[in-house]
Amino acid sequence: MAKVFRPHGSLDVYIEDNILYVKAKYTPNSEMVGHFQEKSKEHIDALSKAPWGSIAYLEGDSIFPLDAKEMIEANISDMTSMGLIAIAVIIRNSESPNVVKHFWQSIYEKQKVPHQFFDDETDAKSWLLNLIALKKNQKN
Prior knowledge:
The chain is of the alpha/beta class. The protein has helices at about 30-45, 65-80, 95-110, 120-140; strands at about 10-15, 20-25, 50-60, 85-90, 115-120.
């Protein structure tokens, strides 16, 4: 029988301007992925009526074990089927930012999700809002 752990760290999820903000500070584990799914479900349901994007703040060295990585990939696939068009990522306070970037980039590329890494929220939000506007115009 597999041991079940508590989610490691803290997670804040909210919506602003058709953008799902995910602010995560943790030592990664699969329980944290499950916690994200629970906390974000209502928000994603609300966003799913129109194209939307996400800004992910990753605090620390956000590299998950294999079982959690597979859960993340399935979660991103579900999110794209519900209107997610792109993800902007901001990595903070990491001792290995290039490793973190490579880990997340491999997930986004496998799921074919447009993504970009940024140093600040202003640029990330601007990039996402432009993509959302383009997608809305394509639908009209």
